[in-house]
Amino acid sequence: MNNYPKIVLKPGKERSLQRFHPWVFSGAIEAVTKELTDGEIVEVYDSKKEYIATGHYQDEGSISVRIFTFEQSVIDEEFWKFKIQKAIALRKTLGLFKNENTNAFRLIHGEGDLMPGLIIDYYNENAVIQFHSYGMYLLKDTFVKVLSDLLGDALKCIYNKSETTLAKGENKTSQNGYLLKEKSSEIVIKEYDNQFIVDIEEGQKTGFFIDQRENRKLLEKYCTDKKVLNVFGYTGGFSVSALKGGAKMVHSVDSSQKAIDLCNKNIALNFGDTDRHASFATDAFEFLDNMESDYDVIVLDPPAFAKHLHLREKGLKGYRNINNKVIHKIKKGGVLFTFSCSQAISNEDFRTMVFTAAAQAKREVKILHQLSQGADHPINIYHPESEYLKGLVLYID
């Protein structure tokens, strides 16, 4: 019998767990069997004292327990090894291991792999871990051992990048740094044979937005002989794809000079010294206000304007304003790739926002594609919040 502390829910509060949603909110808890510490493994019971699930307790924020199993189990190294084996098997099913054309992907996707609080991205044999819960952070040594055992020679280093992802009060214990070896050289990845330099130490998130891989590939088919604008272009992922698709000119815009510098390096890495690309380190809103209406294709991939639910309305206003600017100014017969990566904004919110922006611009707009994150960022069907990336491809007449 396990000796994990027990959390008992209020009557009726077990229903979301019975539907396999992996979060327990603080207001759902009736009682605990002992005083709990942050990151502790706990078992969750309904009001009739029947077992439901096991997860990590969190003493900050509205989510008190993040569930990682709905089967009563001993939570040891073998337990986590089995879970990571399952995640690896999925990526092998997707053809992402030993792939000559693509060697960067998400290995563990939090709730999508029923490991809430754990993100692991794989960049050409280099792994970057982000811990979003203290319970997962406490297991860092276990994860290093398991990853080393399972990946062997296909793992050169593991970098922990969790200083800003743990809750307030926890991040002081998690300094960014290498948990296994150090990278021996600059990391260069391949994505459908396009090459990118990835800065895992200083870059945003884990270093590169690999969730957009399939959407970048789709962009190529719309860019032949087109003038393309990549707004919030970061290190040039969509810009490289546009040039690969035969664009006659690509402009990349990002407020970060460091990102633009790396964007220019990625362009040179793939196309040498080309006059088909120009970059601008400037504010995206200002650039859109002053730009000419001569772009055939525009990519709008802003940062999360609403990282939390209480910022939802403000975030929607920001998305609506910038989409309105683009829809208003894009050339007749133009194509817009527009995205939101805000988990707090639903698919319905996003679609309604784009509808409003289009109506305000008084343009004829058709939806060509509805987009999401790549399959290596699996969406847990019981956890709709894990579908964080929303996208539409619009034809604007």
Q: How would you describe what is shown here?
A:
The longest helix has 18 residues, at 312-329. This protein starts with 5 loop residues before the first strand and ends with a strand. The relative contact order is 0.09. The protein has three domains: 6-69, Roll (Archaeosine Trna-guanine Transglycosylase, Chain: A, domain 4); 77-188, RNA methyltransferase domain (HRMD) like (Transcription Regulator spoIIAA, 2-Layer Sandwich); 209-396, Rossmann fold (3-Layer(aba) Sandwich). Strand 14 (227-231), helix 6 (237-244) and strand 15 form a beta-alpha-beta unit. The strands form four sheets. Strands 16-15-14-17-18-20-19 form a seven-stranded mixed β-sheet, with helices on both faces. The protein has a six-stranded mixed β-sheet with strand order 2-6-5-4-1-3. Strands 7-8-9-10-11 form a five-stranded mixed β-sheet. The protein has helices at 15-18, 77-93, 134-137, 140-151, 213-220, 237-244, 257-271, 284-290, 312-329, 347-361; strands at residues 6-9, 23-25, 29-32, 41-45, 51-57, 63-69, 104-109, 118-123, 126-131, 157-160, 177-180, 187-191, 194-198, 227-231, 249-254, 277-281, 297-300, 334-340, 365-371, 390-396. Helix content is 27%, strand content 27%. It is globular, with a radius of gyration of 22 Å. The chain has 397 residues and is an alpha/beta fold. The model has no long low-confidence stretch (mean pLDDT 94).
